[in-house]
Amino acid sequence: MSDVLAALADPTRQAVVEVLRRGPRRAGELAAEAGVTPAALSRHLRVLRGHGLVEVDGVEADARLRVYRLRREPFVALQAWLDQVHAF
Fold first, then answer.
1. In whole angstroms, how large is the CA radius of gyration of the chain?
2. What are phi and psi of 10, to 5 degrees?
3. Which of 34, 48, 84, 86 could be cross-linked to 53 through a Cys-Cys bond (beta carbons 3.0 to 4.6 Å apart)?
4. In terms of DSSP H, where are the helices of 1-88?
């Protein structure tokens, strides 16, 4: 859980999650909608993917063809933990 919280602590990554919440996007679309450079977005996507929050479909060799989407499981686990804390 701490890895998920650490990944989501960054405001830029929060913005990326908000964009992806509305649906899958290519990297260029994500960068434009999140208001970051493609290079900065790449670093943030690496963190989000590394912690299992985001998955990618497409051709690994060509970043222009990759489509990023949120993974439901980590957010369900986070919500379950928050529900437990809230019940306290």
1. 13
2. -80, 130
3. 48
4. 2-8, 11-21, 27-34, 38-50, 72-87
Length of the chain, in residues: 88
Instruction: Look up residue 65 and give its two tokens.
Output: 């063809």
What distance in Å separates the CA atoms of residue 36 and residue 71, rounded to the nearest whole number?
22
Written as six digits, the tokens of 44 are 């943030």
Residue 56 DSSP class = E
For residues 3 and 51, is the Cβ–Cβ distance under 8 A? yes
Residue 59 scores a pLDDT above 80: no
What's the predicted TM-score (pTM) here?
Answer: 0.87
Tokens 């670093």 — which residue? 43
